[in-house]
Specification:
Layout (H helix, E strand, L loop, with lengths): L7 H7 L9 H11 L12 H7 L4 H19 L5 H34 L5 E6 L2 E6 L8 E5 L7 E13 L1 H4 L5 E2 L16 E2 L4 E13 L5 H4 L13 H30 L4 H15 L4 H18 L2 E3 L3 H7 L3 E4 L11 E7 L2 E4 H6 L8 H9 L4 E5 L2 E5 L2 H13 L7 E9 L4 E8 L2 E8 L1 H5 L2 E6 L2 E4 L2 H16 L3 E9 L12 E10 L6 H10 L3 E5 L4 H10 L9 E4 H6 L2 H7 L5 E4 L3 H13 L4 E5 L5 H6 L2 E5 L5 H6 L2 E3 L4 H27 L1 H13 L8 H11 L1 H8 L22 H29 L13 H24 L7 H4 L5 H19 L1 H7 L6 H30 L1
Parallel strand pairs: 9-21, 9-24, 17-20, 21-23, 22-23, 24-25, 25-26
Antiparallel strand pairs: 1-2, 1-3, 3-7, 4-5, 4-6, 4-7, 8-26, 10-11, 10-20, 12-13, 14-15, 15-16, 16-19, 17-18, 19-20
Helix pairs in contact: 4-5, 4-9, 5-10, 5-26, 8-9, 8-10, 9-25, 9-26, 10-24, 10-27, 11-24, 13-14, 16-18, 20-21, 24-27, 24-28, 25-28, 27-31, 28-29, 28-33, 29-31, 29-33, 31-32
Length: 892
């Protein structure tokens, strides 16, 4: 029998389960029999294929060609060392490919590990006890508890419902939420059965309990091919920018090499010597360490963000965060502490503080209906924690229920029989209860929506009609509480006619108003100030009363003007898209009483104005706005599964200050990549100039190709990675956001790397080369054999000088404007490790027999080191003068 055609009792019996759930031992047995509740992942590209791709990208192809030419040259002109050069280039390709693959693999694993910080958990009933377990541990027969915002973790037959509506779009394609029932269904397919909820769908509103009848690949979700998981994430804009840069640089290097080869042929250079020259030009201009450095920088950024309570779900979010211009933030729980406490009550026509409420408790018995309402009208769960009974759920409802239980008296005769669930359109919820006074409906919600269903009100004179005067007094009380930053709720009730419709929220008696305080988080005002300083606009978008939102906004420094623009949901509904875009020009603006679809309108209007928008959300109805935003940010603690799935970033502490920290890290990523780009490109000029001098001035080649590779992948790699791990510069949040479409490789960066730092390094390297030659008695025009000790020492001095200059350059590249004296040598331990590795490599190359044989070097004397150190100090002084000139121009 199909489970949806059975009654509730028959369905439970068919699965050998009961309304109290499975015993733990039976659940464990079934887990072993049926396996975990997981979908089989689509097989990703094999590791070997992904590994092979690291050797076929554009950079690698250019180097393969260079290696091939070297072997060809060795074949036609043996004994010139070209075979060793070819092997060295192949070694570079292998080292670079292995390193890139390993870094990408580690980054992938790191992101996967971060995602596991938020495993999908579900509430189940086992042996009569409610507990939270991993969704993967569900088995057929388990009783699952569902509520608004939850994903359905397995195919379930419903056994209890309260106002349940489910979004089936992931399975059936239907865009509208559908109500569910408990009655047996005659439908052939469970896809059409109204007493079934399917894995992968989501609860839009209400609550339910269901018995699991299918898990894992046995679910409808597992059977539908188009719901299989994707095989990987798309490359981010930054990665595409790096790929574009790589193609430009490698193409330029190849073009220059070919052009100069033709020039060499035209002026009569020997063919193989000319080919050596062309290969050297290509190798000198290809920044082989660029791609792995970018990958590592992004991976380390995600790790740093996680430590600052921001979990990145999609790698593109790292860079997009850095260009965010507007944050649309919720109020409750994000800007505030989400620790509700009752502060004020308007009851019987009087305004009471919380302290007065406690003192006058005996006199408030005539208003018992209000406190019965707060004690019963909620979605809280009774839990037993360490032997103590308590409530778990929304902090606002916990605060109200605590007051209700304290003042309502004996509730033994009160029992809930039905519920009309809260939703964002109605902005209220109701419960129907059997009480000693008969069946009652208790309603709570936003004052304007509850008030619309009331005809009477409790006053000092008893229950009186809700006339214009009474309505005015009530609205004045609401404004007074809202003006103090309190969240205001109205409470009403009515007797339920056993024969009439039980859920009729009309002709109710207004019992009173309650104002709850949710204090701002202490770290939010400084975070708001940092956003303002960083050129980021923060807009509060709240479902609360406008005056409540405005009061909180003033407390946190979000609004300071006398006449800010406050737009309610009703006003927003009447605005055209053009009017909304114009309204957003207001210097200070706040949105209150907005619905979920209106939140998405705000996001789209800001994007139409050219803004990069980050938006926060926690509810199922926030998902469209989270998806529409450039950066969707979900709450890790209070957020629903649907909101988290739609988001790019998850706040592990639900704190606005963590958004600002994440933006800071996002900006740092872009800055760090520019830093190591400057560092890597600077060494291209001292690698290129020796080849130009070799051809133009007919001198011995000052730097061999193998020595260029020693710089690019031997000494420069680790220091460049260290720059990618730099912490955010304190000033990064004092600059405006990066412009949309701003290129990573700017003309200013190129000018600094190639025309300033690179020229200085090249001059120093050539000076060191000629210093050794001159000391050895060399005369211009004199040829030197490639194994001549003087030639080996001269090229070694040239190489050592480039390395020493790059050691100094490492610290100069930490900031494009600030003096090296302002940040010193500390703050990044990886820099010191990079320098240590650089020293170790150059000493191995110059002072060990294997290093001498492989790289064609010889030991150099102290005078060469002193010359290199002096040139490095001079470069530091010149760069400090350049930075001082820039800072002076910025101030003036």
């Amino acid at each position: 029998m199909r489970v949806h055609s059975l009654t509730v009792e028959q369905a439970l019996a068919s699965l050998n389960s009961s309304s109290t759930g499975l015993p733990a031992a039976e659940a464990a047995r079934r887990l072993g029999e049926f396996g975990p509740n997981l979908l089989e992942e689509v097989e990703q590209r094999h590791l070997l294929l992904r590994f092979a791709q690291e050797f076929t990208h554009f950079f690698a192809i250019v180097l393969w060609i260079a290696a091939g030419l070297s072997f060809v040259a060795e074949h036609f002109d043996p004994g010139q060392g070209m075979a060793r050069l070819g092997l060295a280039i192949v070694g570079v390709i292998v080292i670079n490919g292995v390193f890139s693959f390993w870094q990408e693999y580690k980054a992938e694993r790191a992101v996967a590990a971060l995602r596991r910080l938020l495993p999908h958990r579900v509430k189940t009933l086992r042996a009569g006890e409610i507990s939270g377990i991993l969704a993967s541990e569900l088995v057929p027969g388990d009783i699952v508890l569902l509520e608004e915002g939850d994903f359905v973790p397995a195919d379930c037959r419903l056994i209890e419902i309260a106002g349940l509506r489910v979004n089936l779009s992931t399975v059936t394609g239907e865009s509208l939420a559908r109500a569910r029932t408990l009655e047996p269904s005659a439908e052939e397919s469970p896809l059409q059965a109204k007493n079934i909820v399917l894995a992968g769908t989501s609860v839009v509103s209400g609550q339910a309990r269901g018995v699991v009848y299918a898990t894992g690949m046995r679910t409808e979700f597992g059977r539908i091919a188009h719901l299989t998981q994707t095989a990987g994430e798309a490359s981010s804009p930054l990665q595409r920018e790096i790929a574009r840069l790589s193609r430009i640089v490698a193409g330029l290097a190849t073009g220059i090499g070919v052009l100069l080869f033709l020039v060499g042929q035209a002026i009569g250079l020997p063919t193989w010597e000319n080919l050596l020259f062309a290969i050297g030009i290509i190798v000198a201009n290809v920044p082989e360490g660029l791609l792995p450095t970018v990958t590592l920088s992004l991976a380390m950024a995600t790790q740093r963000m996680a430590r600052r309570n921001a979990l990145v779900r999609h790698l593109p979010a790292v860079e997009t965060l850095g260009s965010t211009t507007v944050i649309c933030s919720d109020k409750t729980g994000t800007l505030t502490q989400n620790r509700m406490s009752v502060q004020r009550l308007w009851i019987g026509g009087r305004m009471l503080s919380c302290g007065e409420l406690a003192r006058q408790a005996p006199a408030l018995l005539e208003h018992r209906a209000l406190f019965v309402n707060t004690a019963l009208c909620h979605d809280l769960k009774e839990v037993d924690e360490q032997g103590r009974q308590g409530l778990r759920g929304d902090p606002m409802e916990i605060a109200l229920a605590a007051v209700g239980r304290q003042l309502a008296g004996d509730l033994a005769g009160c029992r809930r029989v039905a519920e009309i669930a809260f939703d964002t359109d109605r902005k209220r919820m109701s419960v129907i209860c059997d009480t000693p006074q008969g069946r009652m409906l208790y309603c709570k919600g936003a004052p304007e929506t509850v008030l619309a269903g009331c005809s009477c009100v409790h006053s000092e004179a008893g229950v009186v009609p809700l006339d214009t005067a009474a309505r005015s007094r009530l609205l004045a009380a609401q404004d007074e509480m809202a003006g103090q930053g309190l969240r205001v709720l109205a409470f009403a009730h009515r007797a339920v006619d056993q024969q009439g419709p039980p859920g009729d929220e009309r002709q109710m008696v207004l019992a009173g108003l309650i104002g709850l305080e949710d204090p701002p988080r202490p770290e939010v005002p400084p975070a708001i100030a940092r956003c303002r300083e960083a050129g980021i606009r923060t807009i509060m978008v709240t479902g609360d009363h406008p005056r409540t939102g405005l009061a909180i906004a003033r407390q946190i420094g979000l609004i300071s003007g006398e006449a800010p623009t406050v737009i309610s949901g009703e006003q927003l509904r009447l605005m055209s898209p053009t009017q909304l875009q114009l309204a957003l020009d207001a210097p200070e603006i706040l949105f209150a009483r907005v619905a979920a679809e209106q939140k998405m309108r705000i996001v789209e209007a800001l994007q139409n104005k050219g803004e990069i928008v980050a938006v926060t959300g926690d509810g199922v109805n926030d998902a469209p706005a989270l998806k529409a935003a450039d950066i969707g940010i979900a709450m890790g603690i209070g957020g629903t599964d649907v909101a988290k799935e739609a988001a790019d970033l998850i706040l592990l502490d639900d704190n606005f200050a963590s958004i600002v920290a994440a933006i800071e890290e996002g900006r740092a990523v872009f800055e760090n990549i520019r830093k190591f780009l400057t560092y890597i490109l600077s060494s291209n000029i001292p690698e290129l100039v020796p080849y130009l001098a070799f051809v133009l001035f007919r001198i011995p080649l000052p730097l061999t190709i193998i020595q260029i590779l020693a710089v690019d992948l031997g000494t420069d790699m680790l220091p460049a990675l260290a720059l990618g791990a730099e912490k955010p510069d304190p000033a990064v949040m004092r600059r405006p956001p990066r412009r949309r479409g701003e290129r990573l490789l700017s003309w200013g960066l190129l000018a600094r790397a190639y025309l300033f730092l690179g020229i200085i390094e090249a001059t120093a390297a050539m000076l060191a080369f000629f210093f050794v030659l001159d000391a050895g008695g060399w005369q211009h025009g004199q040829t030197l054999d490639r194994l001549d000790p003087l030639y080996l020492q001269a090229t070694s001095a040239c190489l050592a000088t480039i390395v020493v200059m790059q050691m100094m350059n490492l610290y100069l590249c930490r900031h494009p404007r600030r003096s090296i004296l302002s940040y010193g040598l500390g703050g990044n331990r990886y820099l010191l490790l990079g320098i240590a590795a650089e020293v170790a490599v150059i000493l191995f190359i110059l002072y060990t027999p294997p290093g001498n044989w492989l790289f064609g070097t010889a030991a150099i004397g102290s005078s060469s080191w002193l010359l290199a150190a002096g040139c490095a100090i001079l470069m530091c002084a010149l760069e400090e003068l350049r930075k001082a000139w820039l800072r002076h121009g910025q101030r003036s």
